Amino acid sequence: MTTHAANTTHGSDPHGAAAHSDEHGAAAPGAIHPHITSMRLLVSVFLALVVLTAVTVGVTWFDMGDLNIWVALGIAVVKAALVVLYFMHLRWESPFNAIAFISALAFVALFLAFVMADSSSYQHNLHPPGDNVVVTP
Amino acid sequence: MTDVAHSNAAVLAPDLAGHNHDPHLAHHFDTPDQQYQSGKLAMWVFLGTEILMFGGLFCAYAVYRHNHPEVFEFAHRYLDRTLGAVNTLVLIASSFTMAWAVRCSQLGLNKPLKILLALTFLGGVGFMGIKTIEYEAKWKHHVFVGSKNKYRNDSLKGVGKPVDSNTEFEEEGAEVEPPAENKLSAHKTAPGAEGKAEASHEAAAKRSDVGATTWGRGIVDPNAGTPDEAAIRPTYADPGGLAAGVVPGHHGEMHYADLTDAQRQHVYTFFSIYFMMTGLHGVHVLVGMALIAWIWLRARRNEFGPTFFTPVDLVGLYWHLVDLIWIFLFPLLYLIH
Fold first, then answer.
1. What pTM value is reported for the model?
2. A52 in reach of chain B (CB within 8 A)
3. ipTM, 2 decimals?
């Protein structure tokens, strides 16, 4: 009989009090200590996402010129942060997981920055598509 | 000796022969927590590669939108922002039920877990259903993919307006009726042969009058013979200015007939980007739905509880990533201002 056997009693406490990490840690070394997000937090995040979706649709009625795209992206970033931090509980994850994810975002940003810089440096020299230039053979 | 071995076995692998241990603990892990953390890290790395894959498409979007903002403003009016917004809410709601399902699996609440997984799956069904309605509308409006897109077909046929740089050629007035079989010959103008080039200008102008191709304007590369020859020529100095002269108003003053062939090609590019991004996202939704169905079947067999819920957790992470990408796709594609 090992200590793991004590761990396999699923669902003995339907209200989940025993599932919280403090009580588990003492019972079984090496057992999983998950962070369990509270219902209150999940519902709040859900409502915030709904409200932000309404806001991002609503702001398109206002003409802010070049600012519109940045407002839309800003709201999207806030929504994404809520999903990542709370629904995906990255806030309570091991920092390694955050490093893996954020470095991917950083590389996408790097990729975008270089491609945009490259594109805008030659774009004004390009022919429109179908503009068949006769080239000396 | 046996004492040491026994105490190790209690904390590490319970039985090297594989008997009488946690059925979910693989042999190459010491503890359930190590296994759980490894799975999580691997999933986050995988999600990172997903971000990188979509990053390429977001990059294509950024380049084309930056260079042709008016074309994007025009083309996005074909998209139904109400359906897009409803789909955003459907995905957010299903993300919420998924996060709630993970909580239930951690607490060992199996019945609510099954219900919430089913609701999450239904969210995927709803999303794909609305997506199908949208794609069907694109088909009906002839703005679907490939040859089902009128912008692609018409720009290839050359029925659009000539681009601005060609307007003086129209004023020259072309008396010569170009024979139909000569349409392509204008492309072959010998460099430096001014007379022939002018003739081809007239022919091109005439063709644009009769709605034929506007491509072959006999433009001679001024850099011909220099190291800079071929496709680079500083004529179109206005950045993104293929549409210069046709600037759309806020309420759709730009019409299909106003577009040049070049703009039609760019409108087609918008639809290519739209279908690639939403299509790849849709494939992810379908994969996520299959995974949720699999998890639901396992939940029916009461497999998950406070000591083992990793599959629910990881499928949840995947589903949230699908939501995450849509959070960016919706404003970028549907809410262009």
1. 0.72
2. no
3. 0.76
